[in-house]
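Researcher: Go.
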Amino acid sequence: MNLKLETKRLYLRPINEEDDQNFFEMDSNPKVHIFLGNNPVTSIEQSREKIKGVLQQYKDYGVGRLAMIKKDTGEFVGWSGLKFERELRKEFDYYDLGYRLNEKFWGKGFATEAAKASLEYGFKDLKLKEICAAADVNHTVSNKILKNIGLNPSGTFSYQGDLCNWYTLQNPNL
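Model: Structure:
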């Protein structure tokens, strides 16, 4: 995948195998996984497997999560972007908007900035009819971000015993 999106403070580029240490640093932090099943990674091999999954998404669907790189420092902030999702909601497939950040970048607006760019890319460039997202009902920040960027609350569902809010947004350009 040869995509590169740009925001005011970030570059969003395809994830690659060299991101393994950055993924491990982010995903081994238990705080990052509080609303993700409390199951942080414990080995860099787990991070490498996650990256392989993203690379396979690129091949299979032409879309996948993107690395967020801070323009001024080149630091790995986390990932954001779209994913063709088949596991979270077993009853249907959809394009999922998501993000995950290294703790030191929390509360600085990076998730919102990257999510807006991902929405725009999905609707304008990919011409997707709908983009969806999910957030644990107790994850106040993530729920706020999804509402702030324009996604509409569309009910709740249970995933692995946790209640999640469901969000959808129709492509305004179609």
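Model: The two ends are 25 Å apart (CA to CA).
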